């Protein structure tokens, strides 16, 4: 007999199983019925939590984004000591976290550009607290003093990432571009980029 579970626990279980199925056989080949069978529940129970398969997929993407944000927060807490180091860790994580670079789930995102956009939006929203902390630390030191510091930071991250998709960009170039875009002191990021930025 199926054990009744807390609704949130059940929803998380459905999302986790759906993620495994999407990874194993692709989005198109995965049905709500298959997800229900793998979870061990009636198909109607899946529809109780999600109206469509697209909603299940959105739940999976949100879950992946949250996992990466938690990883980034842990990374920042463990390894950062200065504003510039924290900024570089954010930059490095931003590119490595991006869907097309996540080991094991890239096949999901290669199927549809829309999914990349969905992940991207979710990730940026979930990183709001991280951006705010780094910006506050920078402003205390006299940096990021513009009217829209968060938007400027996001625009800089987006711009350098977009450039890296068009041409080869070294970690030193990335550090220099961010220094210039955010009006940071010369060599403040470049000097530590070899230690804190990973090459692809």
Automatic annotation (TrEMBL):
Tell me if DNA-binding is a UniProt keyword of this record: yes
Q: What's an example of a GO molecular-function annotation for this chain?
A: DNA binding
All copies of domain HTH tetR-type, residue ranges? 8-68
Q: Which UniProt keywords apply?
A: DNA-binding
Which InterPro entries does this one have?
A: DNA-bd_HTH_TetR-type_CS, Homeodomain-like_sf, HTH-type_Tx_Regulator, HTH_TetR
Q: Residue ranges of the DNA-binding region?
A: 31-50
Q: Name the PANTHER family on file.
A: ACREF/ENVCD OPERON REPRESSOR-RELATED, ACREF_ENVCD OPERON REPRESSOR-RELATED
Q: What is this protein called?
A: TetR/AcrR family transcriptional regulator
- The organism is Vagococcus allomyrinae
